[in-house]
Structures are given as C-alpha cells and as structure tokens.
Amino acid sequence: MTDIKRGREFLHTPGPTNIPDRILNAMHQPAVDFTAPPFVAMTRSCFEDIKPIFQTEGPVFMYAANGHGAWEAALSNTMSPGDHILVPETGNFSLKWGMMAESLGLVIEHLPGDWRHAVDPEAVEQHLRDDDEGRIKAVLMIHVDTATGIVSDVPAVRKAMNNAGHNALFMVDTIASLATMDFQMDNWGVDVALAASQKGLMCPPGLGFTACSEKAMHASQSAQLPRNYWDWQDRMTEAQYIRFCGTAPIHLLYGLREALDMLAEEGLVATVARHQRLSSAIRAAVATWCSGGDMAFNAVLPEQRSNSITAIRVPTGFNAEDVRTMARERFQVSLGGGLDRLSGIVFRIGHMGDLNEPMILGALGGVEATLQTLGVPHGRGGVSAAIDYLVEH
Ligand SMILES: *Cc1c(COP(=O)(O)O)cnc(C)c1O
Fold it and tell me: How many CB atoms are closer than 10 A to CB 33?
C-alpha cells in the first residue's frame, strides 16, 4: 500500500461533523460590511430561525465561541459566587461542565454516576427534596453525553424537579442532541439550553448558542458572577456590533443560514427520524460485534443509547486507541476516542448531521475491517446486520 490516499475520508468524530457542500459554498463569499442592511437582515433571520430548532419562543444568544463558551455563558449570566449547583454525572462532559462551574466560584453537588447509565430522576428528586434551604440554584444536565453515548430523559428530570417543588434553574447541554434527537425546550420546561455549531447543525466549529427562558433572563438581572463578553443583557439589542460584542462571525453566519434552510427543508421531525433510523442500523451492527460477549455497548440499557453517538467498549487486553488509529490510517474512517476514565476502553462512532445510508455502511465497514485486522474478538457480520435493518425499516 502506498501513502497516497484517494477518495474522501469518512468523518465519524462526534464533532466536528461532516459539513455539507452547500454550507461550505454558502460561506465562500467575500467579507462584507456586517452592519449594512442585507447582512443585518440575514443575521436577524438566523436569530429567529434558530428558535424552532430549540423549540422555544424565548431569546437565543449567539457567540463567536465553541461549546465551552456556551457553558460559561449559561453559568456566568445566571449564577452568583458561592451558589450551589447540582450536577448529575453521566460522563466526561458533565464532569467538565461541573469543573468549569467550580472554577468560576460555584459549589458543586455531585450525583455520582458510573458513566454507563443515564441521569436517575429519582436521585435528582431526592437530592432536591433534601435541600430545604434552597441553596441549589441550578441543575446542570447533559442531554446526550458524547463521551459515553448516553441520552438522559429531560422531561423526567424536569418532573423530578417539579415533584420536589424546587425552584432551581434547569440548564441542559444539547450540544450533541440539537437537531439529532427530539428536544423541546419550552414544552419540557428547560431554562437554559445550549448548543454549538459543529454537531447536529453541520457547520464549522465556532458558534455557541444559549437559549433562555423568562426565568433565566430574570435571573440574569441579579446574577453576580463577573461577565462581560457573555452578558445577555448587553446583547439584547439589534445593533450588530453589540449583539456579538464586537465583529460578527460573518462567514459562520452564512454557513448557519444555509444550515437552517437545510433543516427547514427536511423538517425537524424528519431530521430526527433520519438520525433514529441510521443510528439503529449502527446499533444493529454493534450488537452483532458484541454478540460473542467480548465487546459491549458502553450504555448498558438499550433505551439510553443515543441517536447521536455510539460508544463501544473493546475487550480487556485491547486498547481502543489502536482501533481508532488503524481505522483512520488504514481504512479512512475517523472515530472518536475514549475520554478521561474511558481512555483506551471505548471508541466512539459519531452519527450526527449530514449522513446517509452508504456513509453509515462505509464507516461500519471500515470499523469491521479494523476489528478483523487487529484480531479484536467480535461477532462477524455487523455490516450485514446494518443492511438488514435498513432494508426492513
Ligand atoms: C462537543 C461537546 C461539548 C464541547 O463542545 P466544544 O465545542 O468542543 O467546546 C460539550 N458538551 C457536549 C455534550 C458535547 O458533545
């Protein structure tokens, strides 16, 4: 084999995801005066049309930032130094968001988890019931924890908060679920939902979003954490230079406009259904690989396996990083690796965004070829199982 590579490399990292040519082309434009009427009108349309993606009527703030920026924006706008927050542990992303909160001067109350199960609503309810003095000001939840492949039940956690009669803000990280899984901000009583551009939204990294309920906006009027760039109150304006706290990320906005058009054309329900179908085909393949009992889904319970990303545990004695490296170097499929305590233990297949059947089958083929090459014990015929699923559904 030579080192020369031809054809497309298949990108199945759980962010960034494939950027459709339409979005790349939409960004291929000269820089413009971002304060001139045409661009101002386009920007305004983005601020409006992102709302139905969150299924909210409330304001959405947009930052030249990645998901970590959105995390900080959510916290710094609503919390005050010393406030307690409840962080149910679902994996690396809940851990890291909690650590960020701690570094900003908040006090974290953890609900421990084993990284193989979703948030337990009963544990949330119990913990909040025990908080007689109302010291907990927010519950931070990751809808799909990309590190573990686990989806948690947002309405069930809302219900737990209501059952406990607790007044904390409900903040949900939808970075890996927006436009890939059903998410209904207003119906589900979420106070802050946050997202980033490079996953289900199919754009390059660089835009962060926070969507806010009235209650969250109200909290931002008295919250005392220091903030400037992230400040929602300042950004409540139509003035372009101020609503982005400086120069607007012009080309990312061109890309976002195209992405919003694409999502509107397909329809959010159909987009979510496509993710459900393609990820089910992937799970059919993975279940086949796991059939001998050597490999395993990281998410123990089938209903907690997300439609955005699948984390797969390799057998003891194997290093998941070897799978990842060979898949990329020899078979042109880029996968995610294990994060933090799952390092070397799982590899992850991202399945968000601009994907279709042959892309999924190609990626699965690359992974299966890798497992075979490395001699990782696995049930044969994963790709066929995925084909069977797609034929039947
Ligand atoms: C990707 C991701 C993040 C981090 O986003 P960045 O853009 O890398 O900062 C946070 N939370 C979840 C659930 C993610 O999937």
Answer: 11
pLDDT band (50, 70, 90) for residue 210: very high
- Whether the per-residue pLDDT at 243 is higher than 90: the answer is yes
Any domain includes 107: yes
Which DSSP category does 342 fall into?
G
**What pLDDT, on a 0 to 100 scale, did the predictor assign at position 238?**
87
Q: Please report which confidence band the pLDDT of residue 275 belongs to, taking 50, 70 and 90 as the band edges.
A: very high
Looking at the structure, tell me whether residues 256 and 342 fall in a common domain.
no
254, 301: one domain: no
**Would you say 305 and 297 are in contact if contact means Cβ atoms under 8 Å apart?**
yes
218 and 273 belong to one structural domain = no
What residues are paired with 346 via a beta bridge?
313
From 246, 265, 284, give the residue that closes a domain: 265
Q: Is there a domain that residue 367 lies in?
A: yes
Radius of gyration of the chain (CA): 21
Q: Which of 72, 96, 146, 197 to mutate to test the pocket of ligand 1 (most atoms within 8 A of CB)?
A: 146
Ligand 1 centroid distance, CA of 195 (Å): 8
Final residue belonging to a domain, choices 250, 265, 280 = 265
* High-pLDDT (> 90) share of the chain, %: 98
**Ligand 1 centre from 314 Cα, in Å?**
24
Instruction: Specify the CATH number for the domain of residue 76.
Output: 3.40.640.10
CA 278 to chain centre: 17
375 C-alpha vs ligand 1 centroid, how far in Å?
A: 32
Domain coverage including residue 103? 21-265
- CA-proximal residue: ligand 1, atom 4 (nearest): 67
CB 364 within 8 A of CB 335: no
Split into its structural domains, the chain has a count of 2
**pLDDT for 2:** 72
Residue by residue, DSSP assigns 287-330 as HHHGGGSSSEESSSSGGGB-SSEEEEEPPTT--HHHHHHHHHHT
Q: In the predicted model, what is the mean pLDDT of the chain?
A: 97
